[in-house]
Write a structure and sequence with these properties.
257 residues; globular; six-stranded mixed beta sheet
Length: 257
């Protein structure tokens, strides 16, 4: 008989009673309070909210980069205790190593884990193809545009074959047209890889375009987090009536019109 943990989908996240605060000017600043959350394997969850509401803090706790004050975080039924191979983080800045080529950057994470160089580079080439940069394997980071550099960062994260991608405003530093292109690319990669994605963004339209659900956080610690389903077919059309209505609904969450 299949056990409870065996029946869980890969990349499932469960958060129970999560609280986190920081010391500020000799007082305690609460950014997350008693948060409950479930993310199914293969789902895309977007996290939105004003600056200081705890979006990035939540992502860092999920990544194992910061401990929670209280509560539990489970990945596939197992408690999070620091960073783990089943999770990979993509930051706003791709943080490529300038002395390595694109291929070497993407293979780097595998090589430091002891994967033989030939095998690591073969797998790296697969993900470089996936993000459409085959012709730039030998390029240096300084020769890449912002969007291309972020593609390299995505390929590097996928090469270690995580169950969960944690994305912290990955396109926030890009120009408007490049951002739209990268959103389409991320949606395509998700369709091909089926990896769970948890995305922090300030861009409500980006959240609607990519996510299955949107978690809305507030700076008011007394106001509970809200989960909103994005019940729109894929691929999504930003001009379609349902998309526009969803954008208005999210804007209303923040008192915008």
């Amino acid at each position: 008989m299949m056990g409870v943990q065996d029946s869980l989908l890969r990349g499932e996240v469960r958060v129970r009673g999560l609280s986190k605060s920081y010391s500020l000017n000799r007082s305690s600043l609460s950014v997350l309070r008693d948060l409950d959350l479930e993310v199914s394997g293969g789902e895309i969850l977007a996290i939105v909210g004003p600056s200081g509401c705890g979006k990035t803090t939540l992502l860092r706790v999920l990544a194992g980069l910061e401990p929670a004050d209280r509560g539990d975080v489970l990945i596939d039924g197992h408690p999070v205790a620091g960073v783990g191979r089943e999770r990979a983080v993509i930051f706003q800045e791709p943080r490529l190593l300038p002395w390595l080529t694109v291929l070497e950057n993407v293979a780097f994470g595998l090589e430091v884990r002891g994967v033989p160089a030939g095998q690591a580079r073969e797998r790296a080439r697969h993900y470089i193809r996936l993000v459409g940069l085959t012709e730039f394997e030998a390029a240096w980071p300084r020769q890449l545009s912002g969007g291309m550099a972020q593609r390299v960062g995505i390929a590097r994260a996928l090469t270690v074959q995580p169950e969960i991608l944690l994305l912290d405003e990955p396109f926030g530093a890009l120009d408007a047209m490049t951002k739209l292109t990268m959103q389409e690319e991320l949606a395509r990669i998700w369709r091909e890889e089926g990896v769970t994605m948890i995305l922090v963004t300030h861009d409500l339209e980006e959240a609607i375009y990519l996510a299955d659900r949107v978690l809305v956080l507030s700076k008011d610690s007394g106001k509970p987090a809200r989960l909103i389903d994005v019940d729109l077919s894929r691929p999504r059309d930003r001009s379609e009536q349902g998309f526009v209505a969803m954008r208005r609904r999210l804007m209303a969450e923040f008192g915008l019109h």
